[in-house]
Amino acid sequence: MSMWDDCCKRSGQKIIGILDNDYWLNTDQVDGVNVIGTEQDIEHLLELREKYNFFVATNWDPSLLNGDITERDNQKRKRLIQLVEEYELPLANIIDPSSVIHSNVKIEGGCYIGPMVSLETRVSIGKHTQMYAHCAFAHDVEIGSNCFFNRRVGAWGCTIGNDVYFGPFSVYAGNYRNSHVAENAWIHPGIIVYGRPISEGEIVTIKSQRRTYPLGGVNQIVQ
């Protein structure tokens, strides 16, 4: 929570409070931000809708390294996004003032653009997508909704579907013609993909990027 709060302070936005059933009546604040209710109180939600914009701050992670906790957060984020859509809640973007964004970039609601992110011409970003520090997207990138780009991610000349996760330092080098990352794909940290299409639900690892063929009795690795 402190990351969102710090970014909002830098950009001149004010966080009114947190609506979260896990925190409501259990604690007064999270990282200095007041807990003002629960998302399950629809009447209160609709009252706030008339005055404020909303941002889904629960993160998601396909690795499930923390087991049940991570999976619970993943499902919680989906429920909160469904709630936003069902009640047509207006969305806020949290954009760090140190980011460099071309004038024709299109960013839908509920997105986070972190410190030193670079977005060049003809980039479009769907709802609830998050880009963390030092990401760089060159021209002609179309990004779907609820995507997660960890630190120092890069891409160009491609389309990226919904619910895609890029690990830190990963790069997708598109060919500006038919390079596409399909929905629910996951690119592991540090992987560089040179333009090949990535299938729906594909997990891209070092092993999946290397195909070995016999050549004169010696294996040749083809990237």
List keywords for this structure.
globular, single chain, 6-stranded parallel sheet, Trimer_LpxA-like_sf, 3 helices, 7-stranded parallel sheet, disordered C terminus, 27% strand, GMPPB_C, alpha/beta, 2 domains, UDP N-Acetylglucosamine Acyltransferase, domain 1
Structure explained in plain terms:
It is built from 3 helices and 23 strands. Helix content is 17%, strand content 27%. The chain is globular. A hairpin with a 2-residue loop joins β2 and β3. Mean pLDDT is 91; it is low at 211-223. It starts with a helix and ends with a strand. It has helices spanning 2-11, 42-49, 68-86; strands spanning 18-19, 29-30, 33-37, 94-95, 100-101, 106-107, 112-113, 118-119, 123-125, 130-131, 136-137, 141-143, 148-149, 154-156, 158-160, 165-166, 171-173, 180-181, 186-187, 192-193, 203-204, 211-215, 218-222. It folds into 2 domains: 2-86; 94-204, Hexapeptide repeat proteins (UDP N-Acetylglucosamine Acyltransferase, domain 1, 3 Solenoid). Strands 4-7-10-13-16-19-21 form a 7-stranded parallel β-sheet, covered by helices on one side. With 223 residues, it is α/β, with parallel strands linked by helices.
